[in-house]
Amino acid sequence: MNIRMKEIIATVLIAIFFLVCYFVIKEPIQFSPTVTYIIMIVMVLIFVLMLIRTLQGKYVQRRIVFLLIGIALLVPFFMQFDLPIQVSDEVRGVFDGLAALQPGSTVLVSFDYDPPSAPELQPMAESLMKYAFEHDLKLIIMGLWPMGPQQAQLAIEAAFLENPDWREQKIDGIDYCNLGFQSGNEFVILRMGESIRATFPRDINGHAYDSIPLVRNVSNFTNIDYSINLSAGKPGTIEWVQLAVDRFNLTMGAGNTAVQAPMAYPYVNSGQLVGLMGGMSGAAEFELLTEYTGKATTFLLSQSFAHVVVIGFIIIGNVAYLRDKKKKEKRS
Known about the structure:
Elements: H1 3-23, H2 33-55, H3 62-74, H4 89-99, E1 106-112, H5 118-134, E2 138-143, H6 148-162, H7 165-169, E3 176-181, H8 186-194, H9 196-199, E4 226-231, H10 237-248, E5 252-256, H11 261-269, E6 276-278, H12 279-290, H13 295-331
Helix pairs in contact: 2-13, 3-13, 4-12, 5-6, 5-12, 8-10, 12-13
């Protein structure tokens, strides 16, 4: 049987597996702790075997690498394994800023990201919404990215699914308000510092600013008690710090993708940001603090398994490199 035929058979088997899972298995699959540990031991043994074969000159094929990475990402979704999560000072700073607010306080949340960054930032948004609704914090939502306000609506819906009573209790325009997207990047922030009403004359549903009870008396950043920026790039956290925080003394915490977070950490050290949630781990820490465990905690386990597998392949790759180098030196 040639390689092409093996690939076709593997593809068909995977397709059959997912069709069976979708049409036949109605209940969510959850491995028992025993099965979970057996899978982990088997994965370790597979890597030991690959290392031995590499030392013997039998290198791992590329398709095996892709297969194991896929398994490492997929299998943890079915495992019962509590990954220890240590809360960092940066994430605790964001949460402490929220926890210090009194019921009825006004919180400005800027959703500066789009769906491709949602796996890391949406869990932060959903935990924030649930915590704010539970503690009666008033949310003013906006976005410097076109899809940001839509991501906010999804987070609100996730909060309503968490507690169906909130759907009736939390009123749009009184407990939260989505002002929508406004183009202009940094200039939007500057103009909000002078007048939020002039920057967002209507909310996302077309209601006039002065007709919305929540924001009727909110003129600019001086009427905001706390703010959180969820950002995947520019415009985002750095622009908010340089303009709203430095110029208008807005108190701000932030949540960034893992790629962007290293550029924002200096602003935490300087005190310009009260805290920072960085990537999936930051989202999982925030879920732990808000006591609303969600997708980030689950995804973090999958991400951690994938990282371990990648580290394993890096070790095996270096072993193969050193073996080849030694072999060439003997020949010369």
